[in-house]
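Email to the structure team, subject: Sorting nexin-8 model.

Hi all, the expression group asked for a predicted structure before they design truncation constructs. Nothing fancy, just the tokens so they can compare against earlier work. One-line instruction: predict Sorting nexin-8, return tokens.
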Amino acid sequence: MDRLAGQAGAAPVAAAAEAEADEEADPPAADSPTPQVSQRRDPHPSRMQMPQGNPLLLSCTLQELLARDTVQVELIPGKKGLFLKHVEYEVSSQRFKSSVYRRYNDFVVFHEMLLQKFPYRMVPALPPKRVLGADREFIEARRRALRRFINLVARHPPFSEDVALRLFLSFSGPDVQHKLKESAQCVGDEFMNCKLAPRAKDFLPADIQTQFAVSRELIRNIYNSFHKLRDRAERIASRAIDNAADLLIFGKELSALGSDTTPLPSWASLNSSTWGSLKQALRGLSVEFALLADKAAQQGKQEENDVVEKLNLFLDLLQSYKDLCERHEKGVLHKHQRALHKYSLMKRQMLSAAVQSREPESVEQLESRIVEQENAIQTMELRSYFSLYCLHQETQLVHAYLPLTSHILGAFVNSQIQGHKEMSKVWNDLQPKLSCLFAGPSSSLLPPGPPQDGRSSH
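Reply from the structure team: attached below.
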């Protein structure tokens, strides 16, 4: 999990990450000291405007969030560095009407910039770097995870208006990492650029701490349930794909049986015509079984794309909320407590110095340090309230995504209906072809008829 201790800064990506051999560098740590901003640029105009009404409340719906942008991330095969192979992606944005090439390390730097500029917001986690011997399955899973990451970011209200997102999705120059870092220099984080930050406490409800605890518990429960739903959906999709493989092999074995050229022994010559008819019929059945396998595979892939991926998208969002809650508790609140403890020690030192009548210069230095610490405490209190302010908005954003549940269930039901309908048609077309299997001069057997809805003929 990311651990951003309420700071505005994040550790810079190592220079080796820009080299071909180190393309898959570890994501930067988030426990960096707050940067000292000596010169502040004007942030994006939309972030500086005072919002209308109650700024704490978000009014966006799921449809509005999804309409902000749709970003595709496709693998570009066959890319190689000077010494090692590396993976490159084509990232296409509907909103910016752009298509750019990005490597994994570009995502890492972009992720770092988001944590630096928005430490109190839900920044989705990146998938892991490549491990030795990474196979196609791992690469495809990471491509899907990167696509989920960038779509969650592109649809997030504050992120979607930030210059870093525009650069990442539309800058086609040779070094997007340098451009991203350059854009973040001397800017500061959201707390420093938001006009409402010093007054965040005024907009918070009186029971904000209780609301925070209740919301955190609710979202934890939702996460656990959706995690189980995702696991089951994966198994259902996997079974459909396994079923497709079994049907295909079943048909191939029937075809192999029908194509057998081993001559019949003389004692079986009386049944030679029957065996020949059976072989011809078996060869024809392989076509239907191949079609059945194709339908089952299509259903499995559709459920992977429309059900499992949407569940994973929502789980990524919920996980980023859980990470944010931890950053709030272990970061902002912890730093505030440390600042208060340090202030208490200084006050005791001040009293001790006064009692012992130390030199005036020493006392003045201590007084100056105490004033500095008081200012630091005041800043940490403001950051703590602003963190709660952002948490309140991020909680609303999570709830705005909850209707995605109906999209997921609808996709699952439609996939099942369509899949069973298409396979049922193939099975029905296959049944008349079984009659030749029961044909023969001495055979009184008949192919089984269609089911009678459980009603007995007696």
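The CA atoms of residues 110 and 411 lie 32 Å apart. Residues 1-51 have pLDDT under 50 and may be disordered. Ping us if the truncation boundaries need rechecking.
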